[in-house]
Amino acid sequence: MDLTQAKPSAPQTPSSLRHTDLLQLREVSKTYVTDGEPVHALNGVSFTLGAGDFVALVGRSGCGKSTLLNLSGAMDFPTTGQVLLDGVSTSELDDNGLTRLRRGKVGFIFQAFQLLNTLSVLENVELPLLLAGESKTAQRAGHNLQLVELADLGNRMPHQLSGGQMQRVAIARAMVHDPKLLLADEPTGNLDTQTGNMILDLLRRIANQQKTAVLMATHSMEAANIADAVVRMRDGRIEEVIRR
Question: Which H or E run includes 145?
Answer without folding.
Answer: helix 137-147
